[in-house]
Amino acid sequence: MSLRGHHNSTNVLVETASFLVVRLGVSYVALPADGVRGVLTREEAGNEQAVTAAGTIYQPVDLAQRLSVVADLSGLEMRTVLYSNGHSYGAIRVEQVVALTDVERKDCLPLPPQFQCDERNWFGGMMLYQDQLVLLVNPSWVLGDLAEVVLASVGQAEQMVAVTPAAVGESC
Question: Do 164 and 60 meet the contact criterion of CB atoms below 8 Å apart?
Answer without folding.
Answer: no
